[in-house]
Amino acid sequence: MIRQQLATILWLRWRISYNQWRRAGRLNAILTVMFSWFLLFSSVALFLAALIGGIIGLSYAQPDHVLIIWDVIVSAFFFMWIIGLLTELQRSELLSLEKLLHLPISLSGAFLLNYLTSLASLRVIMLFPAMLGLCLASVVTHGPAMLLMFPLVIAFMLLVTALTYQLRGWLAMLMANKRRRRTVVAAVTVSVILLCQVPNMINLAFQSRRKRSGADKPNVQAMAADELKQKRNSGELTREEYEQQLDELNKRRDAFRKLERTRTYNRVVYYLNVGNLVIPFGWLPYSAAGLAKGIVVPAVLTTIGMSLLGGVSLWRSYHTTLRFYTGQRKIEKRIAKPQPPQSPNRRMLLETRLPCFSEHASAVAAASLQSLLRAPEGKMVLVTPVILICVFGSTIVFGVGHEMPLQARPFVGVGVLAMTMFGISQLMVNVFGFDRNGFRAYMLMPVSRRDVLVGKNAAVAPIAFGMSVVMLAVLQMFLPQHFTHLVATLVQFVPVFLLYCLIGNTASIAAPVGMSAGSVKPVQPKAVPMLIQMLALFCSPLVLVPPALWLGAELLLQRVTGVTVVPLYLLLSLGEAALAIWLYRRVVTAQARWLFQREPRILQAVSSLAE
């Protein structure tokens, strides 16, 4: 009975997916079907590649090599697991447990069926066949003891999928409140991004420390070679004696380097063994290395341990689900705090009047900025400076940034502007997609569509400018540049941002895409609008060409004439800013007329699909 119900639910999930692909457009359906067939062939190809490659490679592999191979596979699995978890948090399930309860199935049966259908994920389809192929190759190369790899892999999959299912269930209950759901999605996404940068920071710190320690030590080999050369030039050594001693010196150098590589390799293997022994997810590589040595006990114990952990996780998840759907969970009661009386002279946010902007444009900018500050997608953009500072700052502090010449440092400032535009790209190329049903308010407003576009662009300006200022401050702290170059880079924000606004407005009007609430995931994306937005992203680096040219012109002038007192980069940046303001005022008027003509199509794209 369970088998028939499982087959029916799998067919139902496939049918719902097929209907979604068909409604998204013929081209999207064709691409999705092609991807599905590619995924199927890829899983078969990975199984055969793991089997054949394992038979060839594992024949000469040592236990330490087996440990490293399985660590790489487990790391790839967890990378895909994190990506899949983030994707699942930002979308609703095709068949959630709540929908299954409407069917004539018990709660335990619905829970089991929902868990089994959740196994049909991209990461399982791609890597599980490769794991099985490598296990079969291990049996061929290392003997029957490697048959224990099959229950090890199954226990590992049970552990990972059970913990994932429990985590998803807990997050689903936590995100029952829609506003809390958006905050959780934003917090989890940012935490995962920062966590993924930890290995990069550790690697940079390790390399920097090794370079500094190597720089502090005298180069004994080079000193010995120079001494031999001096003896040969002075006549103390003949040519044959010099070549013989030089060969001996090179052999000692090669032996020393080989010894250093061996020590580093042994140190890495030691840390991998300790980490795999402590972390349950590393029990699979640790046991595989033990089986390659002929030790069976760790494989048996870790198989039992992972199976118990996975079973306990499913048991807790089932009882939590039971309490949730039977109404036994505790309901939070919040007492509303009395709000302090507002002053009658207090000015509302929408009444804020921005200098050099009309009243309507100021109101649109204030409303859009308030929406971005409250929406989770806006929070994701606001924390982008933190992520970029961690990545960019760690590269400067621990990397070779301090060795960069003074003439090349202003180009890093241009790179800061590039990262800023990249951070706000989701908001710029689809300015109406995050409005969803709120776009009707812009259609019904008796204001000029030019004020709507200007207000939407002005709402993103303080976010982008704040990102640039923070990153430039970090850059100036650790990689100082000339004051005029710093001021010129700040001035360059004006033309770069305005030109990027024109590109973003064009893409937003021509190819609007509805976005799901609380995420940056498009709803039923079609191929043509997504291609247009990708084209706009590819064209965005063109706005950075002028500052690079002005900076290159200043450096060329200094090299040719030797004059260093003329801030050519700053002067040209001021001129470009004035020209960009004039161009923006002219082009945005034409874009406003185009927006008025395409308003119904934009409303249909951003509201009807997102509902």
In brief:
The chain is 76% helix and 0% strand. It has 611 residues and is mainly alpha-helical. The radius of gyration is 31 Å and the shape is flat.
Structure overview:
The longest helix is centred in the C-terminal third of the chain and has 41 residues, at 568-608. It contains 24 helices and no strands. The chain folds into three domains: 2-203 and 279-325, no CATH class; 206-264; 349-608, no CATH class. The model is unreliable at 91-95 and 331-336 (pLDDT under 50). The protein is flat and about 80 Å long. The protein is an all-alpha fold and 611 residues long.
What are its keywords?
single chain; 611 residues; mainly alpha; 24 helices; 0% strand; flat
Give the biggest sheet: none
Based on secondary structure, the structural category is mainly alpha
How far is it from the N-terminal to the C-terminal residue, by CA?
Answer: 37 Å
Q: What's the number of structural domains?
A: 3
Radius of gyration: 31 Å
Assembly type of the shown chains?
single chain
On the 0-100 scale, what is the average pLDDT? 76
| Portion in beta strands | under 5%
* Poorly predicted residue ranges: 91-95, 331-336
Helix and strand run: HHHHHHHHHHHHHHHHHHHHHHHH
Task: Kindly state the percentage of residues in helix.
Answer: over 70%
